[in-house]
């Protein structure tokens, strides 16, 4: 198991984010998004601290924002050299999401001899299995400490096949400060299915299972997930779990020139 994963720039940012966690826990507008430090309502909460952190990490995030307005804010406050990649942010309220997820889990029984395991404090071996599947599917893995819920509550589901191999995973995290505007939103995602088993409902099932179990544990009011415009399968999966696009995006701004995740 490695604590941090990715390029040297990504690892440096992940370490900074972990080292900043005590301050993040006291700052409602700051979000430990594991792979980037994210910020809510920067126009209200102030760009000065964001500029400092952006200079250290070279990648920062802005969840659930208007694309044009936030890109203008980034250009003006951080500078024109920052790439601004956007993912559509899909959202659903608890009733809507839980009803859809119940339908998914009822319609898609687990393949024979497979098992479902939920982790909130996975062992090193379990972390390695999940990180390895994420990395193999192009989803940038969460750092180990984050998966162990050492920063914020994180729930990961692993679906294992008859030979005890993790074939699908998804996660849900209460990453937003309780006193911020998104305080009772769960952020779900990190869905990965081993290539040989794709298109059989396993991604949808993993996503639905982690949403249902995280609601039981965290009692969130809304769920949100991000999807890239070129990932129609992921979009269909998230929509089947009751989340819909409302015109907002999540932006990752970076000067590292790399793709942060799918
Ligand atoms: C995205 C991913 C998790 C989906 O898992 P999956 O098991 O392949 O997908 P499912 O069988 O559960 O299908 C999900 C939806 O996509 C549709 N779908 C599946 N394969 C498809 C394909 N090749 N073309 C079009 N639609 C497809 C399904 O019909 C379903 O939609 P529906 O509920 O409206 O019928 C999986 O493909 C994967 O690991 N991809 C790489 C990593 C990734 O992109 N993760 C998401 C980013 S967080």
Q: How would you describe the overall organization of this protein?
A:
The chain has 262 residues and is α+β, with helices and mostly antiparallel strands. It has one domain (8-254): Aminopeptidase. Helix content is 38%, strand content 27%. The protein has a 10-stranded mixed sheet, sandwiched between helices. Helix 6 packs across helix 9 (202-218). The protein is globular. The model has no long low-confidence stretch (mean pLDDT 96). Coenzyme A binds at residues 137-139, 189-193, 198-204, 231-234, 236-237, 240, 262.
Helix content: 25-40%
At the third CATH level, what is the topology name? Aminopeptidase
Classify the beta-strand content into a percent band. Answer: 25-35%
Largest sheet: 10 strands, mixed
Note poorly predicted spans.
none
Query: What top-tier CATH class fits best?
Result: Alpha Beta
CATH architecture: 3-Layer(aba) Sandwich
| Backbone CA Rg | 17 Å
- As laid out across the biggest beta sheet, the strand order is 1-2-3-10-4-9-8-7-6-5
Summed up, the domain count is 1
Task: Please state the average pLDDT score.
Answer: 96
Counting helices, strands and paired strands, the structural category is alpha+beta
Order of helices and strands: HHEEHHEHEHEHHEEEHEHE
User: What overall geometry do the principal axes of the alpha carbons give?
Assistant: globular
CATH superfamily label? Gcn5-related N-acetyltransferase (GNAT)
Please provide the count of β strands: 10
Name the assembly state: single chain
Distance between the termini: 22 Å
Give the distinct bound molecules: coenzyme A
Number of helices: 10
């Amino acid at each position: 198991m490695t604590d941090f994963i990715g390029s040297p720039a990504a690892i440096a940012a992940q370490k900074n984010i972990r080292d900043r966690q005590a301050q993040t826990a006291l700052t409602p507008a700051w979000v430990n998004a594991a792979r980037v430090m994210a910020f809510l309502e920067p126009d209200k909460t102030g760009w000065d601290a964001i500029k400092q952190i952006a200079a250290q990490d070279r990648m920062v995030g802005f969840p659930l924002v208007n694309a044009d307005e936030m890109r203008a804010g980034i250009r003006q406050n951080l500078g024109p050299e920052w790439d601004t990649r956007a993912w559509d942010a899909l959202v659903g309220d608890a009733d809507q999401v839980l009803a859809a997820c119940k339908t998914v889990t009822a319609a898609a029984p687990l393949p024979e001899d497979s098992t479902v395991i939920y982790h909130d404090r996975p062992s090193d071996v379990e972390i390695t299995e999940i990180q390895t599947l994420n990395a193999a599917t192009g989803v940038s893995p969460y750092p180990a400490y984050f998966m162990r819920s050492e920063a914020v509550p994180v729930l990961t589901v692993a679906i294992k096949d008859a030979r005890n191999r993790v074939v699908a995973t998804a996660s849900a995290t209460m990453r937003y400060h309780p006193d911020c505007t998104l305080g009772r939103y769960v952020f779900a995602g990190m869905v990965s299915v081993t290539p040989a088993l794709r298109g059989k409902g396993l991604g949808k099932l993993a996503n639905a299972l982690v949403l249902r179990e995280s609601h039981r544990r965290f009692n969130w009011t809304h769920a949100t997930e991000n999807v890239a415009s070129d990932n129609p399968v992921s979009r269909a999966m998230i929509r089947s779990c009751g989340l819909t696009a409302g015109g907002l995006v999540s932006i990752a701004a970076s000067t590292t020139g790399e793709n942060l995740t799918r």
